[in-house]
Amino acid sequence: MVGEMTYELPGGVAPDYLPCRYGASRLVFRGPRRPLDADYVAVFGSTETYGKFIETPYPALTEEMLGVPCVNFGCVNAGVDAYVNDSALLEAAGNARATVIQVMGAQNISNRLYSVHPRRNDRFVNASAMLKTIYREVDFTEFHFTRHLLTTLEDICAERFLMVRQELQAAWSARMALLLSRIKGPVVLLWLADQAPSDAEDSWADPLFVTRAMMEGLRDQVSGIVEVSTSEGARGQGTAGMKYGPMEEAAARELMGPAAHREAATALGAELTGLLHLRH
User: Fold this and answer.
1) Under 8 Å between Cβ of 96 and 111
2) CA-based Rg of the chain, rounded to a whole angstrom?
3) How far is CA 184 from the centre of its chain?
4) Are 34 and 71 in contact (CB under 8 A)?
5) CATH number, span 41-122+171-275
6) Distance CA 64, CA 39 (A)
7) Which of 13, 180, 209, 246 has its CB 3.0 to 4.6 Å from that of 221, i.e. a possible disulfide?
8) What is the pLDDT of residues 109-135, one digit of tens each?
9) Cα 160 to the chain's mean position, in Å?
10) Where are the domains of the chain?
């Protein structure tokens, strides 16, 4: 008699993200939906903030440390554009005791060269006449995602790509300044990456094309900047502790694991404890 064969899926089953909405916002967030009529911290950000494949992402871990609800307004692949014109989210930030904004890459915002989807900011919509003039040989209908577009443009001509990168960096700085001007109350910027902010303007590390100088340019508009460059130990854990389906391992390997989220929560919690005048 042949014994019954069992298979264990690596990482188990992906978390139930309990998708929800807030107010009139058309964005979908990780749940459970939280009440916004009491004290809370609002957390804006991209895939790391949302906590894809993570059972307890850093906003929830920070909440455990503070004893104050940290409402997760993170969106997978979000850029600054997802937040800057969303009146419901700006109102939520204005009513919060503080707002955390994860530093998001410069590729996923509309600019003078191309536009992105207003909610799915990693989706390339169309090229402007200016970009078509710079890259006359390119058929832009072939692109659906911003990163594919940018890597291809640099491969074609690194010299011309310098203009593209500078435009993205200028647009990021202007859009972040606009977002910060629209949020009432204290704001903390969170740098969460595998490496520290750099002065190298041509680095392809995430958050894409954001330099230390660009962040410092916003310092007068924020209450604090928290830098978390994940430890070698956290990076070395790979997908340990992450929850994902059998077809999602490659995607999971590109993201931060639970140890990195704990490091982010520790640093962010310390900053917010002082900002909110909490006693522990």
Assistant:
1) no
2) 20
3) 21
4) yes
5) 3.40.50.1110
6) 14
7) 180
8) 999 999 999 999 999 999 999 999 999
9) 28
10) 41-122+171-275
